[in-house]
Amino acid sequence: SIQYNAEVVDISKLLKTNIDLVQPQTVHKHIVLKQKLQPDLKALVDKQMLGFVLRKVLSLYIEAVEENGIIIITLKKSIKERDLLSIKIKSRHLIDPTNGLLNAWEFNTHYMEGSEKSRSNMLGLMLCKEFIEKQGGATQISNSKKSIVFTFPLA
Predict the structure, then answer these.
(1) Contacts of residue 88, Cβ cutoff 8 Å, sequence gap at least 6
(2) From CA 89, how far away is CA 35, in angstroms rounded?
(3) Are 98 and 117 within 8 A, CB to CB?
């Protein structure tokens, strides 16, 4: 079992760090990672677990977005529930939003029947989902399958 080490983390700084780590993956497809990050939002999370989730999901978006596409990463205090922060990752430039990576998040069995890489991505996403829930977070997929939102309690 993976140990959970919660600490108060500035989520905007954690996002910037992880965006910088995946940035080199965008070069060959000329993808822009657009950041809309509200500063000084803190949550009680495991920095390593959340970093893994952010890198995995951003990497899968980069893989799923067409050339010259844009991925928007937003961090803000939740409008609906004041005690939550939300991290939203979205793109209108997904190659196949109806049968793509967000279906895998919902554990669509067709996705699991794909290539070895698809199965590897599926296992990574299962781990991501477990990490989000372990930290008291929740996940929501948009109906259009173009965005994913993670919410966490503010610290």
Answers:
(1) 72, 73, 74, 75, 147, 148, 149, 150
(2) 10
(3) no
Q: Which of 136, 132, 134, 128 is CA-nearest to residue 107?
A: 128
Distance of CA 152 to the CA centre of its chain: 13
Interatomic CA distance for residues 148 and 86, integer angstroms: 10
**Could you tell me the maximum CA-CA distance found in the chain, to the nearest angstrom?**
42
29-46 residue pLDDT tens: 999 999 999 999 999 999
Measured distance CA(92)–CA(31) in Å, rounded: 12
Residues 18, 55 contacting (CB under 8 angstroms): yes
pTM listed for this prediction: 0.86
Using 70 as the pLDDT threshold, list the residues of the chain that sit under it. 1, 97-122
Pairing assessment for the beta strands 32-37 and 70-77 based on DSSP bridges: parallel
- Tokens representing 135 are 């930290």
